[in-house]
Here is the input.
Amino acid sequence: MSLAQDTITSNVITLKGSTAIVKEFFNFSVNSILYQRGIYPPESFKRTTGYNLTMMVTTDESLVSYLNNILRQLEEWLTNGSVQKLILVIKGKESGETLERWVFDVECRQKENEGAQTAVSDKSPKEISQEIQAIIRQITASVTFLPLLNEPCAFDLLVYADKQATVPVTWEDSDPCLIANAEQVKLRSFDTKLHKVDMMVSYRMDEDGI
Here is the structure.
């Protein structure tokens, strides 16, 4: 059982537990987006269960390794309050254009270096799980309003952190991959009282407006 799952059954949520919840949410959300948007072949995913939902997670070893590296760094930054947002960018392989930006805005309300090791949240773990469940359902339903991706696509993950944050030497600076005149849809949010995550997707409309 994961730390996040352990936390869901606990009466209180510590900073470490809140970090684990957000980290697990990022993992499931990114996997769900990559599956729903067809960035990787459907046969490279397997079924799993979380938040009382059936979800798809990748079995692609290189992708699993990439995501684990990102999540390990996010865990550190979530704990010390350095991370501001995570953005999943979907680009056309042929055109090079940014087609979608999935933005996770992160508010860190407690920081480990501010004596928050003992900070706890009394918010119901069941309520947090239901909030996350609602977001995952929205990601699944996104195919009903997002334009079709008419070319093979790739993705990248952008992480915005405080200037004081220690960045791994293998990470590179990136442009924000903005979309001109993008359509935007605000999704739901969840809040552990120690971390809050707001979510939004922006996307490029076809030239004919569909």
